[in-house]
Design goal:
Length: 359
């Protein structure tokens, strides 16, 4: 049965065949999102920016001191760049979109945000009938990064209406599949987890081998070939059950909860309430249908990797609230779900570095 919600892969393919989206190959289609490949056109900027409604991104290049950048050269640390997204885009009047950085680049501390012609918000393609160019604002804060045309650092998902789970549907989904599980794979019921409006709150796993801290280094990470993990990150461990992330440093951590996204749902990590702390807990955020589901529901969830940037030194302990997750219905179940497709993170059971890094 079709309903409003997130468009699955088969409908994204239809948008491509109708040339609402052109120049994007099949390999960039995910279960419920489209990877956004980089074009060759890039600029070094003096600052990030947002267009006002109706303004085109190209018109604003002189305003932010844009100078041409060759993608054969690495991004300088702390400097913002603007890279055009390949393809042409003209959405139907019933469809709108939101973008997210990809997890693999988010886990590198590579700051990415999509800006689009005429849209005065980051990461948004507002309908009806939006058409224009998309660009990614990219900034690497910890080490130089080398990009390349065709690489995707962000992704976009499309909707024909909001369909967030209310209390009734949340309870039904928990009874049917389960959404969150504890570390022993026991299903968590509504009374077992904290809620925040339309979201579940997730907690932090703190202990031995709890994750990684990013090194500040001048070594260049070439995303075309990857790099050695120890050149860019070092492992971290709790001492006496506590750990203190430092202000403006970057950490790869993990949730205590095992998260399942059934095939009829997708999910997104949302910004944490500042009353719970001054920090950013994730750099990507979108979770495809079928994450932690397995092929037939046998997986019983999988921990979510977090990308933590504290805005102040903050002592953390096991079970401390760290993130929140919101579920939304798919318009249809995708033809292929996350765990049934080839992925770099289906074996993720603790804090997992980016696919661009190897031991």
């Amino acid at each position: 049965m079709s309903r409003i919600g997130v468009l699955p892969k088969q409908m994204l393919r239809e948008l491509c065949s109708m040339e609402c989206i052109a120049g994007i190959g099949e390999g960039y289609l995910n279960p419920a999102s489209i990877d956004l490949p980089l074009a060759e056109e890039a600029y070094r900027l003096e600052s990030i920016f947002l267009p006002l409604r109706g303004e085109k991104i190209r018109e604003l290049l002189p305003l932010v001191g844009a100078t041409e950048h060759n993608l054969n050269d690495p991004l300088e640390v702390g400097v913002p760049y603007l890279v055009r997204i390949a393809g042409t885009w003209k959405l139907p009047g019933t469809v709108y979109g939101y973008a997210n950085p990809k997890s693999s680049t988010g886990r590198l501390g590579l700051f990415c945000r999509i800006v689009a012609d005429g849209v005065d918000m980051y990461e948004a393609l507002i309908g009806p009938g939006w058409t224009g160019e998309m660009w990614v604002l990219a900034r690497s804060d910890y080490f130089p990064v080398l990009l390349a045309p065709g690489l995707a650092v962000s992704q976009v998902r499309f909707f024909d209406g909001k369909s967030f789970l209310d209390d009734l549907h949340t309870e039904l989904e928990i009874k049917m599949h389960g959404l969150l599980f504890d570390q022993k794979k026991r299903r968590l019921l509504l009374g077992d987890v904290r809620r925040h409006a339309d979201s579940f709150l997730l907690s932090l796993s703190v202990g031995k081998n709890m994750g990684y801290e990013c090194r500040w280094t001048r070594k260049i990470l070439d995303l075309r070939v990857g790099g050695k993990l120890s050149d860019f990150f070092q492992p971290i461990h709790a001492v006496n059950g506590t750990f203190t992330p430092r202000k403006n440093c970057f950490y790869i951590l993990t949730t205590r909860e095992r998260v399942m996204v059934p095939p009829d749902l997708s999910a997104e990590l949302r910004a944490i309430d500042p009353r719970l702390g001054e920090f950013r807990s994730h750099a990507a955020g979108y979770i495809d249908p079928g994450w932690g589901y397995g092929v037939c529901g046998e997986e019983l969830g999988r921990p979510i990797t977090l990308e933590l940037i504290p805005h102040e030194d903050m002592l953390v302990r096991d079970g401390q609230t760290i993130a929140r997750i919101r579920y939304e219905y798919m318009k249809e179940v995708p033809e292929t779900v996350y765990d049934a497709a080839a992925s770099n993170y289906t074996s993720q059971h603790n804090a997992r570095p980016s696919k661009y890094l190897h031991e």
